[in-house]
Design brief:
By secondary structure, this protein is an alpha+beta fold. The protein has a single domain, classed as NADH Oxidase. Helices cover 39% and strands 14% of the residues. It starts with 13 loop residues before the first helix and ends in a 20-residue tail after the last helix. The structure holds the ligand Cc1cc2c(cc1C)N(C[C@H](O)[C@H](O)[C@H](O)COP(=O)(O)O)c1[nH]c(=O)[nH]c(=O)c1N2. The site of ligand FNR has 12 residues, from strand 3 and helix 7.
């Protein structure tokens, strides 16, 4: 019998575990495969519920979810992306700019729903448990919410793409964000028929996944 407020922590069933790992490994960043079909409200609320269940420093839940469906707002964000993307391409060495220009890096106007997940840096007051020695833990918490949403979207068969090639100031202006609120993630959400079986950047020859073993150190960095 578990103590009050606790419940057994045993592993999930084989099928449940397989589903969790499947969502993790088959989650993809989607840019180009969005269908125009609407996302219904129940589905959207399940996805936002997953995001809202994320861990957060001091339980401060610093996020807000701005739901964007209007053509007018999406067009403005698309124009902001275009300007930033032109700057971005020019930052790469000449030999990579051709491939960069061919990459599809957003689905802002194709996706029926866009979401901006923000971090309110003032939530919970000036002193927050767990954020006392690392001011950015509120931003990390918000990133956890994004990942929860991304995994839930995969389980629901919904595509999600993160667009970060945007100037914060443009997003702040378009979405009317107050100064203490940071736009952490601009996301495109929509139904999809197919997903890449590997990161699209890998499929297109831009980058590859590093082997897991190369990421693991023993005891200290470098060992
Ligand atoms: C913080 C952050 C920001 C971005 C991304 C991801 C993350 C975590 N990614 C998606 C990224 O390219 C992708 O996750 C990796 O290439 C791995 O592919 P899968 O997500 O496994 O499909 C991304 N992709 C894109 O086309 N345009 C973008 O602006 C961004 N920005």
């Amino acid at each position: 019998m578990a103590a009050d407020g606790l419940k057994p922590a045993g592993p999930f069933s084989d099928a449940e575990r397989a589903a969790v790992y499947r969502a993790i490994h088959e989650r993809r960043d989607v840019r180009g495969q969005f269908l125009p079909d609407p996302i219904d409200d129940d589905l959207l609320m399940r996805l936002l519920g997953a995001a809202h269940a994320a861990p957060s420093v001091g339980l401060m839940q610093p996020w807000n979810f701005i739901v964007i469906r209007s053509d007018a707002v999406r067009q403005q964000v698309r124009a902001a992306f275009q300007a930033a993307n032109d700057e971005a391409r020019a930052m790469f060495p000449d030999e990579k700019q051709g491939l960069y220009a061919q990459l599809k890096l957003e689905g802002i106007t194709e996706a029926p729903v866009n979401l901006c997940i923000t971090c309110d840096r003032s939530r919970g007051g000036p002193v927050v448990l767990g954020r006392t020695h690392n001011r950015d833990t509120d931003l990390y918490s918000t990133a956890c919410a994004v990942q929860n949403l991304w995994l839930a979207a995969r389980a629901e068969g919904v595509g999600l793409g993160w667009v970060s090639i945007l100037r914060d100031d443009d997003l702040r202006r378009i979405l009317n964000l107050p100064d203490h609120v940071v736009p952490v993630a601009y996301l495109c959400l929509g139904h999809v028929r197919e997903l890449y079986d590997q990161p699209e950047l890998q499929a297109r020859g831009w980058a590859g996944r590093h082997p897991l073993q190369a990421m693991i150190h023993n005891e200290t960095w470098g060992d």
